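request received
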Amino acid sequence: MKKCKRIKKLLIPFYLGELPDKENDLVKNHLDICEICLKEYKKLEKLFEGIEENRKEVEKAVDSIDWEQVPLAIMKRLEKESVPEKRKYSFQILNLKPALSIPVSLFLIIGITLLFILHPWSRKHVSENEFLISSSSFQNMESSLAKKEAIDYLKQSQLLLMDLMKFSSPEEIDLWTINFNSRKAKNLLIKKKYFDEKLDNLNLMKAKRICNQIEFLFYDVIQLKEQPDFENIRKIQRIIEKEQLLFRIRLIEKELS
Amino acid sequence: MDSGKEIKKRNESEKEIIKRIKNGDKEAFNMLIRIYQQRIFRLAYCYFQNKEDAMEIVQETFLRVYQKIKYFNEERNFQSWIYRIASNLCVDYYRRLHKQDKLFDKLKEEFIVSRTSEKRTRISDFKDILKKSLQFLPRKQKMIFIMKNYEGLKYKEISKILKISVGTVKSLNHRAIKNLQNIVNRFMRGENEKMQEN
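response:
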């Protein structure tokens, strides 16, 4: 029985002639002696006889068709369907089906946009382009520069005025210091020209007022080079004291910084 | 069966025809239809068991071939390619038209009705039983069975068409035969039972 079970499994490849010689002989010999397996084999033969009969029917069906007409019918359909086919292709991207081409194209558009936004060269390009700085940020930059220059001007003026305040008698007058401060006053007046207008625009009126007062004083300081009298120095000292210039300079400095 | 030389000669002439089709030669396409139309018809006829559906598959296959031939590499086997298109179309067409369900319903009905005398004579013909039993096979087994036993294709050729190993093709063919035998036996048993009842 065990052998029959094994042989039954080999019947189909045996019938199809797919068994190696050894197994082929085994099945052949078994069929000579086993009626049950032979009966199974006969059923298989009958099945293939039926298949052969059906093949003949298929051939009859093949013969019943006018095959000359088939290519003509196909060519006719081809001509008819060629127009919508072209239209269909216009929706295709990278030879994908239309259903796929929509998400793929969306993905590509989003990807390219992100690349332009996030890529370093695109950011570099933006920073290099001066016209892309907004007017408000430009004003902020101008304001901070003007403040810096004003603070610097006030600090140097303060030192200069303090130097002048040191002279308390004609004997203490030092010509070198007077000459030095006179030159310095000249330079500071030139410097003031550059940030003076900016102070107008940026509503730094307090700073502007004190800078103007210092400016008038500096004209007198410059004159000291020509006439280094104690009387002239004293005159300047009195104005400084009267206007509390040193104190006010310190206050404005604090405000600006 | 074709000899090796004949196959080589056929492949060479096919290559020429395909090149000409790619260049827009419609006469060459006409020639290609004439070479393959009957083979595709046989495959589809065995699958659907009716001429109309088979002819629809033949036409659809060649339309598909014409549309896609620009992507076909001439160095590859054209027969495998066209058979693959046809077999895929058979399966799709079957599914699309829901014919399988309808056919199964019809066959199941015949199983039941075969117990009545008037139907018995209709399906008592073994050929008829076999044809109907074939429709009960799973799609892949059915396709392999038809290609091997009706079309006479070799296992290697079928494996190229369906892109599966030769061993799988062989085992699926054996399984298809076994299943077909079982289905036929069920039909026959129904017949015998009816005879006994009478």
